[in-house]
Amino acid sequence: MKKLLEILVIGVVLSAVSFNSSAEIKSLRGPVSLDDESEMFDKRKLVKQKGGFERSFKIQPPLIPHETEKDKITLQTNTCMKCHSKKNHEKEKAPEIGESHYVDRDGNVLEKLSTRRYFCNQCHANQVDAQPLVDNEFAGAK
Amino acid sequence: MARLFRWLTPTLITGIILGVALWGGFNWALELTNTEEFCISCHEMEANVYQELQDTIHWSNRTGVRATCPDCHVPKEWIHKVYRKIKASNELYHKILGTIDTPEKFEEYRLTMAMSEWRRMKQTNSRECRNCHNFTSMNLDKQDERSADRHDPHVWDAVDGKEPSLTCIDCHKGIAHSLPGGWEEAVEKDPILSEGLELDSE
Fold it and tell me: What is the pLDDT of residues B76-132, one digit of tens each?
């Protein structure tokens, strides 16, 4: 009887505690009830910047200063190479892909973009005009 | 004379009615084959090129104008349209043969098919592009600097009424469907497609 009472008391206390803590949980969606629609975030457009972006560190893959909406990287073609390949970059006044991009994993220098550098957007990213949320004094290497 | 009229009138009326019905029916059937619905009723089109189109600006854009298959692939003027339709009977033959009935086969033939369509466009001065796009109504100030620079000489050609040195498809390949592998080399080797391309290098 005494044991039963003990368990009962512990149970009541624990449930009170858990009830309390559950009330403090905040949803990542903010204080919006479940059946409301969440707030729309601001639309941001990709930045086009003539001359490109400054690098933040020495061997940083350069950022993409233009839209890439129409570009496609498929098994058959990589349309970035319409402008950035060895053959086309002069005509298109676009920077050529780096020398390292012609080297395959065995160290052979190829005529064309090496398959291990094929997926441009694995390293090179578009930019949106987003200001840092926290003040930041970081200055990139020049 | 009266007898001749008695004979002529019903013949004429029947002739007109028959003519309208047959000609109308023919055109109606022809137009039926000029719909997106008809094009993608074959899985070869639906599963490959139609899916690719949906990623592009000709499918969805700021202004909500859409170009569907026949807008680019079937000429508008009657005589060119019928010529294209007759040529397209070859496609029916290959449909029966199953030349491109799997994605792998389609990929294998993509370069051949793309080249023939590019050649058609080049030889007609990109006629189907120009059903919507016109140099005389193109405002270069609204374009990116790069695009404006490249279009500029052609706009002046159009304004001056000169023969165009290049045509839309010369630069705008692969805007509605994926490009086939090895397309650049293939275009360079093709006597029709490579014509005039060196003019663009300045």
Answer: 999 999 999 999 999 999 999 999 999 999 999 999 999 999 999 999 999 999 999
Do A70 and B175 make contact, defined as CB atoms within 8 angstroms?
yes
Contact residues of B toward A, CB < 8 A:
55-57, 107, 110, 144-146, 174-175, 178-181, 183-184, 200-201
Task: Go through the domains of chain B in sequence order and give each one's CATH number.
Answer: 24-201 (1.10.3820)
**Which residues lie below 8 Å from residue B195, measured CB to CB, with a gap of 6+?**
B122
Helix residue spans in chain A (DSSP H): 2-24, 81-84, 89-92
Place of tokens 């070859």: B90
Q: What is the CATH code for A66-131?
A: 1.10.1130.10
Task: List, for residues A82-125, the tens digit of each pLDDT value.
Answer: 999 999 999 888 999 999 999 999 999 999 999 999 999 999 99
Using CA atoms, how far residue B7 sits from B1, B13, B17, B21, B75, in Å, is: 10, 11, 16, 22, 42
C-alpha to C-alpha distance for B65 and B69, rounded to whole angstroms:
13
